Amino acid sequence: KGIRKVNNAPTTDTTNLSYPTWLKVLQHCGCGLDSAVKVNQWCIDSGIFSGADYLKCWIASLFQYPLKPLPYLFFYGPQNSGKSTFHESIELLLTSGYCRADNALQNKSGFNAELEGQILCVVEETDLGRDKTANSRMKDWVTGIHIPIHPKGKTPYHVVNTSHWVHTANSHLDCPVFPGDTRVTICYVPKLDEQIPKELLRQ
User: Fold this and answer.
1) Helix crossing, 51-64 with 20-30: angle to 10°?
2) CA 121 → CA 40, 42, 47, 116, 188, distances in Å?
3) DSSP 8-state code for residue 69
4) Structure confidence by residue, pLDDT tens digits, 1-16
């Protein structure tokens, strides 16, 4: 059902937790996972009951276990449905470690120095279905313990892989996934019923 295990489960003590804006973001971006989460045994056993819970655990794991891999999150849906809000919100919690990674995936020469030391790598509207090189790199970098870094004009070298990936696109065809592939979690993000102005949302 497209659900891959993450490294954390939501807290059972919710008495002092209040994050209404975050909850709106997580519920909207994660609603496409709700039906899969409800029947996935690992989610049931881990106390993950909704797509919002799953995304919250994904974010928690990003911070708590930066050296452990996480599934490649692929959000697709209509234009202006709020897909990018997920990674843009996480960026607000970071002082460094966030980068746009489209070029690193697609660069024909393999230059990707921008990935070194990053924990959140963002891909926007890159079609991995058409670009076989980018697709292969994604699969390697999502699960690899080390990642090759190739600065322009310098000798490539390997570093510990801290990268975790979020990809947004309008079409589900931009990220092909084959049966049994647990590296990618695909989530449909529907049209927004009401839009919060982005600057207000960031506040």
Assistant:
1) 110
2) 27, 26, 27, 10, 20
3) -
4) 455 556 555 566 666 7
> What is the spatial distance between Cα 64 and Cα 90, in angstroms, rounded to a whole number?
14
Residues constituting the chain: 203
Q: What is the 3-state secondary structure (H, E, C) of 79-121?
A: CCCCCCHHHHHHHCCCCCCEEECHHHHHCCCCCCHHHCCCCEE
Q: Collapse the DSSP code of 149 into the 3-class scheme (helix H, G, I; strand E, B; otherwise coil) and give the result.
A: strand
pLDDT, position 164: 96
CA angle, 45 then 187 then 29, to 5°: 90
d(Cα 60, Cα 22) in Å, to the nearest integer? 13
Q: How would you label 15-36 residue by residue, b for 16+ Cβ within 10 Å and e otherwise?
A: eeeeeeeeebbbebbbbbbbeb
Which pair of structure tokens corresponds to residue 104? 């690193």
Q: Is the pTM of this model over 0.90?
A: no
Tokens of 152: 């322009």
Q: Which residues of the chain have pLDDT under 50?
A: 1
